[in-house]
User: What shape does this take?
Amino acid sequence: TTDHITMLSQSLSTSFVLQTLDLSGNILDLEAVKQLCSGFLRKTRSLYKLLLDGTSIDGESTKILCDCLAQSTSLRKLSLADILFGEEHSAALIPLLQSNSAIEWLNLAGTFPNEASCKSIGKGLSENK
Assistant: This one.
C-alpha cells in the first residue's frame, strides 16, 4: 500500500549503499511511486538491481518510475516480469532505455507485450546512448 511504501522510502532514504531492492508482488499506485521516487530512488547512488516482478502498476505510475530511474547511473538490472504490459507501459520505458546506458539486463518475462509495445521497446533499446 501507499503507506507501506512511504514508510519504506523514508527509512531507505538514509541508506546510500543498498544495491538491490525487491518490491515484487506489491501494488504500486501513483502516490506510492511518487513517494518511492522522491525519497529513496532520487537519493541513492548505489542501486544496482530493482525487481518489480508481478507488481501491479498502471501506465502513469510506470512513467513516473521510469523518469526517475532514467537519472540513475548505478542501475544495471531491472526486472518487470509478470506485469501485463500495455502500450502506456512500453511508452514509459522508452526514455529510460534511451538515456540509461548503464542497464545491462532487462527482464520482461510474462509481460505479454503486443506488437506495438515490442516495437517501442526495441526502438528505445536501439537508441540507447
The mean pLDDT is 83. Helices lie at 2-12, 30-43, 59-69, 87-99, 115-126. The first helix runs from residue 2 to 12.
